[in-house]
């Protein structure tokens, strides 16, 4: 259980504080403030400023984590026997505080969920947004946690309780009231009954992030794809959906009858290392038949999350060449090769080539895109807007160094890359998504379906 | 945030809240209330507008209601009498036709943490438990726990508990889970909620209907259930199988723990489970959510302690990437060090070597220590890598390598030769205390194999005057004496000089004592010195003690998925020990007043307290309601009962003093920082009869005196003198340590 939840900005000012339990704070955290090297918050002339209620936990976290001089050693910090779990989003710190022996994974998941919910309401989590939506956040915190225990956290279901516009209780219609009752008593917690749309539509996004660590010789040290299938559904009634993809096990099972189909599709099927599903998917059916069937929540949700490590299509290859010419000069040449169908276009390509700390000047020549040396980041940043498949581009740079007597060798950080490609690097393909609604009269054919694949770079690094 | 101007702000807000024009305009009214909440968030004391806020609660605007209730829950303990005024509105809302309003009012009412509220909330809670809207039932169920918490240790209401048990069969999944949570808190003293066979089976069947938080919670409660037969056990495991592959890592870990505990008599099932969660765990370890990744890595390490080979084939998953945060890198290095085996040792060492030159000195040192860990099994390769690292001539690398060597030579004596060859030359690159100590120890113990050992030590002896770390000087004394035994001719002269310096000029007591001790030892004769100093040079058997190989799964299964793997067992033990002491305090029977009473001196400190002279009649207890505010008020209202002056040398030591005072249960209310002149501190204490002692310490360094003024809430000279003597003893003791 969570004793309290605090949101700080980067300066350590408290933006939101909600205390659920009395056991956090009080005198326990006092000693932390005492023992820290920071000056005391009160001066001699006013030796007895009353400590505002439970401020100590709040202050202790600021002093020990946000203002800490060294790098943060752990996302879980124990100050005066109180555990602080923190998550950072841009320059906002979210901290959950507890005195109990809780399970860390669950608390972090809760913080992520909290971030998701907030993002669903007001977009990016930034200081500005948090200040503007301050009432809403308190409302959310009230509903999501009670007495420190997580309650309902589905964005869709929460919408019924959150009254940001402040609906007057009298004006609320009978219908809405009964909705609350039925929504919270229904057997299916994630969908309310009686949803109607004029156009039945659904959107499927296959979002993947491809991670790579490659040695200078071009050997793959580790590569994996973590992907998500996100579905946005605008469907009436209680539709029963069935989702199919080119999962190896399913394809092989089906292909048993016709041998040549296996050989045809065998190449295109992929091996999924592990996958997890949204609560709505019937796991028993997946285990027995490997079929994914579910009644979707209304609106956007994450249908499944998966990970593959085999046969990954690496969209780009980076070939670095670094030559040290004397003590004051470096020559760097980097070639990038796109490795996908020529008809597809990769976007937002960015290559970061790190430079030594004592760089005095850089001259860059590149065939495509724009390259710039950014002294503050110690890197050459090479940006290309678009690039088709099976192409090659290169950049060469001469780096002049200041002579130093620092014996430290330059550690040569890896070259990292960012990009976006319109296919799934794991090779995953959506084969079908069927919709059945027995009670209402619309059929699978009437539903408009959209499928989109986006592959992004996760940590995509090549050592040099 | 205005630092001192809170009075003005309160005044202004008060005016605004009372303004009938603002009250008439809903939006403006709400805005003022928002400002109050905002100031409250920033830590300003807003209790001054309580009355006005209570009035604002009588509104039809739900948002305004929510804000006001939030305010009231925060300040009700400070203004219990005024809060009672709000109860009326709340009670009315509890019977509102809108379930949302009912739930909100009930929740807020239960969260008012003030004495006396119980009698008002009991009936609404009972009504809420039978409400037709599940939203209200959820709130009411947790309300029971809140009410019990308020009561403190009053007897458990049997009827209520039965009602809650029957609500375990409620339709709504969240009500069910809340029931478990609530029962757990209410029945804490009886060992928590009882999970018998029907309840367990009922919960198992409802599992798939719950959300992830509920699932995690129920899995935790099911740990308590003991299946009657093997058949039932395996039925349960089959039923829960799908949760090992759940979407949420928290549920996966919860399920894993349950499997491990239920199958504690079937080791093969346990291993099987660990194999099955490998995938999800690895996925969590490489997920983009870094904090989750950290938690997963901690658990991977835990598993590796019992099954060293478990993740060996996946070693590449634990290679660090450049942009990962520090804490993940440190964990990954530890994991790599644990999973090394014959097949991957080459690649892992190659990778670790790469980290040793990382920009972050901290991480580089961690990598070097990890290589040291691997070296216990693969000595030769590692020593070679470490020796190469010395060639980089970098301070932080050299010191870490030398420290690693020191430990390695002790555990794996076969590498002594290689280490001795690598050492010459690295003294130039060591500046910190730890590194110097390690180097000096090595030179002393294995000096006969290092040709230039005496010359290196001679350098240290030459510069001993400017040496800042006493520990290094002590190490130097021991090392030189040891080397003197094996190479007397080269060392005699400098040993003499060092001993002279240590005895005649050194200011640090410990070093001086050590010097004197060796000097007298040498006077007794060389044989005696040999007998005492020549301990064994290494002892590989100690490696086993330090690192007990392959702990059985059952030894940590109950700690899995708690904070223990995150903090480490030893650290958690200290944390929970202190917590245990606190619990002890909380569980003592509360009398009508707030004051806790009873012997609160931790076992370990008891002796010290009893030894204090003349403290016989007086027992000080830590007072929980002695706040700074209260202290100030009392201090101003009392006369000085006693004044005294004690001798004191030099500056004050707030840290030490505060700790010492804590031991005898004297609370430090406020204290100026070290070095301030004049230096002041305010202390407070309470004895078991409830009288208060307040004291002021004033230190004026130029007179070397500590002025003590004591105020006492009751005029009893007996206890007053004993309190003063306690205080005197503590201050005297701290003063002694210093000078």
UniProtKB/TrEMBL annotation, chain A:
Membrane topology per record: Peripheral membrane protein
Ranges of residues in domain MHD: 199-463
UniProt subcellular location: Cell membrane; Membrane, Coated pit
Keywords: Cell membrane, Coated pit, Endocytosis, Lipid-binding, Membrane, Protein transport, Transport
GO biological process terms, semicolon-separated: intracellular protein transport; receptor internalization; vesicle-mediated transport in synapse
Record GO terms (molecular function): lipid binding
InterPro entries per UniProt: Adaptor_comp_med_subunit, AP2_Mu_C_sf, AP2_Mu_N, Clathrin_mu, Clathrin_mu_CS, Longin-like_dom_sf, MHD, Mu2_C
Gene Ontology cellular component list: AP-2 adaptor complex; synapse
Positions annotated to bind a 1,2-diacyl-sn-glycero-3-phospho-(1D-myo-inositol-3,4,5-trisphosphate): 370, 372, 374, 383, 385
Family membership: Belongs to the adaptor complexes medium subunit family.
Protein name as catalogued: AP-2 complex subunit mu
Organism: Carlito syrichta (Philippine tarsier)
Name of encoding gene: AP2M1
From TrEMBL, chain B:
InterPro entries, per database record: AP_beta (IPR026739), AP_complex_bsu_1_2_4 (IPR016342), ARM-like (IPR011989), ARM-type_fold (IPR016024), B-adaptin_app_sub_C (IPR015151), Clathrin/coatomer_adapt-like_N (IPR002553), TBP_dom_sf (IPR012295)
Identification of the protein by name: AP complex subunit beta
Native source species: Carlito syrichta (Philippine tarsier)
GO biological process: one example: vesicle-mediated transport
Alphabetic keyword roster: Golgi apparatus, Membrane, Protein transport, Transport
Function: Component of the adaptor protein complex 4 (AP-4). Adaptor protein complexes are vesicle coat components involved both in vesicle formation and cargo selection. They control the vesicular transport of proteins in different trafficking pathways. AP-4 forms a non clathrin-associated coat on vesicles departing the trans-Golgi network (TGN) and may be involved in the targeting of proteins from the trans-Golgi network (TGN) to the endosomal-lysosomal system.
GO molecular function, one term: clathrin binding
Assembly: Adaptor protein complex 4 (AP-4) is a heterotetramer composed of two large adaptins (epsilon-type subunit AP4E1 and beta-type subunit AP4B1), a medium adaptin (mu-type subunit AP4M1) and a small adaptin (sigma-type AP4S1). Interacts with TEPSIN; this interaction requires the presence of a functional AP-4 complex. Interacts with GRIA2; probably indirect it mediates the somatodendritic localization of GRIA2 in neurons.
Residue span, Beta-adaptin appendage C-terminal subdomain domain: 620-732
Compartment list: Golgi apparatus, trans-Golgi network membrane
Membrane topology summary: Peripheral membrane protein
GO cellular component, one term: trans-Golgi network
Taxonomic lineage: Eukaryota, Metazoa, Chordata, Craniata, Vertebrata
């Amino acid at each position: 259980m969570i004793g309290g939840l605090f949101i700080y900005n980067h300066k350590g000012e408290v933006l939101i504080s909600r205390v659920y339990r009395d056991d956090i704070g009080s005198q326990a955290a006092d000693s932390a403030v005492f023992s820290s090297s920071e000056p005391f918050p009160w001066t001699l002339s006013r030796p007895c400023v009353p400590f505002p209620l439970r401020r100590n936990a709040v202050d202790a976290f600021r002093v020990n984590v946000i203002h800490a001089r060294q790098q943060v050693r752990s996302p879980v910090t124990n100050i005066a026997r109180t555990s602080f779990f923190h998550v950072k989003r841009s320059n906002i710190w979210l901290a959950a505080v507890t005195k109990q022996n809780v399970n860390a994974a669950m608390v972090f998941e809760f913080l992520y969920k909290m971030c998701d919910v907030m993002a669903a309401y007001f977009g990016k989590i930034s200081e500005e947004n948090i200040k503007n939506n301050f009432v809403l956040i308190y409302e959310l915190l009230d509903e999501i946690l009670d007495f420190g225990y997580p309650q309902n956290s589905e964005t869709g279901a929460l919408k019924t309780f959150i009254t940001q516009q402040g609906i007057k209780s009298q004006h609320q219609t009978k219908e809405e009231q009964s909705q609350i009752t039925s929504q919270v008593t229904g057997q299916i917690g994630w969908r309310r009954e009686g949803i109607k749309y004029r156009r039945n539509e659904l959107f499927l996004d296959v979002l993947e992030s491809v991670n790579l660590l490659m040695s200078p010789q071009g050997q793959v040290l580790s590569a994996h794809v973590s992907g998500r299938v996100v579905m946005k559904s605008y469907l009436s009634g209680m539709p029963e959906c069935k989702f199919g993809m080119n999962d190896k096990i399913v394809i092989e099972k089906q292909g048993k009858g016709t041998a040549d189909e296996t050989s045809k599709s065998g190449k295109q099927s992929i091996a999924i290392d592990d996958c997890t599903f949204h609560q709505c998917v019937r796991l028993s059916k997946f285990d027995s038949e490997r079929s994914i069937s579910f009644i979707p929540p209304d609106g956007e949700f994450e249908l499944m999350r998966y990970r593959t490590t085999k046969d990954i299509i690496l969209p780009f290859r980076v070939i670095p060449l670094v030559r040290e010419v004397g003590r004051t000069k470096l020559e760097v040449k980097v070639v990038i090769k796109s490795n996908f169908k020529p008809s597809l276009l990769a976007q937002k390509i960015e290559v970061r080539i790190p430079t030594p700390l004592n760089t005095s000047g850089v001259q860059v020549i590149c065939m495509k895109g724009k390259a710039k040396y950014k002294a503050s980041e110690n890197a050459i940043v090479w940006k290309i807007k678009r690039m088709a498949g099976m192409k090659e581009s290169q950049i060469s740079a001469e780096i002049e160094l200041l002579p130093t007597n620092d014996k430290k060798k330059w550690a040569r950080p890896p070259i990292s890359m960012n990009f976006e490609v319109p296919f799934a690097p794991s090779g995953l393909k959506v084969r079908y998504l069927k919709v059945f609604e027995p009670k209402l009269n619309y059929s699978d054919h009437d539903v408009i379906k959209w499928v989109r694949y986006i592959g992004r770079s996760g940590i995509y690094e090549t050592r040099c | 945030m205005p630092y001192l101007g809170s009075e003005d702000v309160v005044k202004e807000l008060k005016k605004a809240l009372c303004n009938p024009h603002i009250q008439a305009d809903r939006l403006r009214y709400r805005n003022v209330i928002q400002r109050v909440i905002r100031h409250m968030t920033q830590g300003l004391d807003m209790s001054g507008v309580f009355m006005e806020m209570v009035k604002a609660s009588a509104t039809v605007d739900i948002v305004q209601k929510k804000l006001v209730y939030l305010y009231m829950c925060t300040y009700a303990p400070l203004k219990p009498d005024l809060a009672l005024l709000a109860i009326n509105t709340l009670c009315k809302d509890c019977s509102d036709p809108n379930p949302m309003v009912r739930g909100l009012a009930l929740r807020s009412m239960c969260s008012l943490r003030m004495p006396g509220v119980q009698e008002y909330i009991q009936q609404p809670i009972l009504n809420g438990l039978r409400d037709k809207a599940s939203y209200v039932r959820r709130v009411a169920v947790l309300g029971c726990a809140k009410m019990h918490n308020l009561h403190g240790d009053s007897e458990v209401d049997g009827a209520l508990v039965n009602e809650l048990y029957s609500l375990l069969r409620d339709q709504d999944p969240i009500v069910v889970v809340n029931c478990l949570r609530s029962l757990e808190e209410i029945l804490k003293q009886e060992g928590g909620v009882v999970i018998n066979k029907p309840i367990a089976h009922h919960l198992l069947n409802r599992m798939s209907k719950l959300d992830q938080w509920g699932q995690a919670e129920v899995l935790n409660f099911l740990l308590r259930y003991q299946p009657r037969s093997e058949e039932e056990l395996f039925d349960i495991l089959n039923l829960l199988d799908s949760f090992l592959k759940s979407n949420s890592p928290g549920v996966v870990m919860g399920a894993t723990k349950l499997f491990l505990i239920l199958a504690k008599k079937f080791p093969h099932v346990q291993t099987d489970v660990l194999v099955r969660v490998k995938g999800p765990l690895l996925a969590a370890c490489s997920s983009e959510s870094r904090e989750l990744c950290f938690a997963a890595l901690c658990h991977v390490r835990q598993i590796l302690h019992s099954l060293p080979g478990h993740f060996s084939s996946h070693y590449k998953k634990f290679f660090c990437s450049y942009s990962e945060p520090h804490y993940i890198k440190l964990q990954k290095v530890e994991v790599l060090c644990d999973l090394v085996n014959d097949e991957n040792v080459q690649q892992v060492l190659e990778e670790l070597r790469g980290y040793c030159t990382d920009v972050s000195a901290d991480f580089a040192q961690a990598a070097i220590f990890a290589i040291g860990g691997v070296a216990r099994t693969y000595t030769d390769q590692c020593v070679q890598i470490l020796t190469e690292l010395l060639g980089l001539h970098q301070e932080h690398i050299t010191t870490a390598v030398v420290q690693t060597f020191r430990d390695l030579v002790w555990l794996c004596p076969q590498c002594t030769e290689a280490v001795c060859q690598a050492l010459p030359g690295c003294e130039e690159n060591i500046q910190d205390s730890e590194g110097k100590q390690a180097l000096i120890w090595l030179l002393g113990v294995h000096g006969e194999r290092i040709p230039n050992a005496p010359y290196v030590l001679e350098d240290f002896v030459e510069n001993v005057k400017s040496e800042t770390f006493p520990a290094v000087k002590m190490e130097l004394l021991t090392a030189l004496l040891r080397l003197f035994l094996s190479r007397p001719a080269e060392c005699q002269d400098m040993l003499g000089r060092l001993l002279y310096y240590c005895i005649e000029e050194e200011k640090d007591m410990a070093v001086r004592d050590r010097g004197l001790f060796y000097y007298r030892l040498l006077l007794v004769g060389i044989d005696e010195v040999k007998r005492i100093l020549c301990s064994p040079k290494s002892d590989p058997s100690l490696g086993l003690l330090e690192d007990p190989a392959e702990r059985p799964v059952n030894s940590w299964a109950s700690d899995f998925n708690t904070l223990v793997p995150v903090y480490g067992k030893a650290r958690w033990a200290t944390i929970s020990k202190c917590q245990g002491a606190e619990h002890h305090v909380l569980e003592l029977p509360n009398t009508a007043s707030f004051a806790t009473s009873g012997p609160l001196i931790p076992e370990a400190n008891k002796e010290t307290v009893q030894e204090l002279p003349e403290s016989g009649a007086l027992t000080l207890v830590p007072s929980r309601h002695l706040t700074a505010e209260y202290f100030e008020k009392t201090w101003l209202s009392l006369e000085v009962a006693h004044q005294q002056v004690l001798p004191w040398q030099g500056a004050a030591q707030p840290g030490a003093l505060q700790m010492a005072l804590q031991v005898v249960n004297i609370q430090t209310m406020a204290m100026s920082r070290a070095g301030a002149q004049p230096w002041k501190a305010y202390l407070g204490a309470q004895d078991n009869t409830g009288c208060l002692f307040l004291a002021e310490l004033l230190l004026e360094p130029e007179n070397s005196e500590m002025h003590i003024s004591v105020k006492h809430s009751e005029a009893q000279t007996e206890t007053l003198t004993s309190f003063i003597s306690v205080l005197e003893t503590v201050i005297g003791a701290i003063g002694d340590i210093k000078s």
